[in-house]
């Protein structure tokens, strides 16, 4: 199964910490409370997909690491 | 660290009262046990880092706090069936259904409509004699109209569901039969509305939720009804009073109003500072620990009620320099007035747009805006959930 690549647009992130609360260990907040992936490439994880779908600023993008196509959104 | 101290008596400050010096009350402990006026023994969590840690940590459960036998009448009884009283994964399943309607991008697209409602309301105020009641004429109808249009609820029914909402979230001292009656009536109202929408779907959020139920079975009928009620109630009382309290704060600082009038581009930043400084809520909803949790140098045992004190986070000097100073030009981003974690306010981005447009309109079109009565005469509704003003009589123009 192909891997997922996570990226977070820090300019769009509003620091709600929604992703950290949903998918603990997958996201980390910097000192300005902006989120970023703990690891940029992961095995598929439904919680990460939930976090992306729940992000209030749509800052999280999730793509197939090989094809660069969106890891089909919910 | 062991827990041996007896609980500290703690009474949340009412609107208009000075905020108690928490450090003095708690003996300088950031996390401490307290006895509330209703006799509940809870843990109170203070300071930016601790409050934030608590909000993102799923071991502090909302579902346990509103479980049968725990939920108190009023807001918590209502919350028990809503996303506000759920934990992941149930919370995630339901919230995802509405999250996309409230993203920054979607809400930004509503800005012109919000601005035009603001403009219509101010036109109406200008056409009537002064003083005007800002609550009835502006701060309540603005968010009510916006959420009604989003959901697809007839705006004519505003007064009726505002009465229900008031009973449910307003006053926790109220007779619980009265609250139950209001809840049943509100659910009945939405039940009928959902049936009507089901027969005649429209391009609105309620129709989208009905489709999520009927086509994809992603939520139950009960969840659908409660979600609609949650969005409606959450969508107006809070924003209305954030407008009121923000205006009170601004009117105390005429020099800063002048700054905003001279430079309307600074209004979005000012809204963040207004959110940081005003005390919209009383005590925040409690969480219950699912296991022993370490926070702020203590271990809170499993099964204890824990309440974050948001005011102490928003006025934490390690994050906001000179925190008691209200300054519309400061960078107040990072305040926790919308919470954080899975329960981060669903309507945060919408509220921001509404507040920005509200103040653009009020400051731009009503120069000389001021209270028509002394601030000490303003009356707040009883209750702990939201500090709601009954009326806000204002004048404008040349004194």
Shape of chain B: globular
Figure out the total of helices of chain B. Answer: 18
Strand content of chain A: 15-25%
- Measured as a percent range, the helix fraction of chain B is 40-55%
Structural shape of chain A = globular
- For the biggest β-sheet of chain B, the strand order reads 1-2-3-9-6-4
Largest sheet of chain A: 3 strands, antiparallel
Oligomerization = heterodimer
Number of strands of chain A: 5
Number of helices of chain A: 2
Description:
The complex is a heterodimer of chains A (74) and B (399). Chain A is 19% helix and 24% strand. Chain A is α+β, with helices and mostly antiparallel strands and 74 residues long. In chain A, a hairpin with a 5-residue loop joins strand 2 (27-29) and strand 3 (35-37). Chain B is α+β, with helices and mostly antiparallel strands and 399 residues long. Chain B starts with 7 loop residues before the first strand and ends with a strand.
What key attributes describe this structure?
heterodimer; A: 74 residues; alpha+beta; three-stranded antiparallel beta sheet; two-stranded antiparallel ribbon; 2 helices; B: 399 residues; six-stranded mixed beta sheet; 48% helix; globular
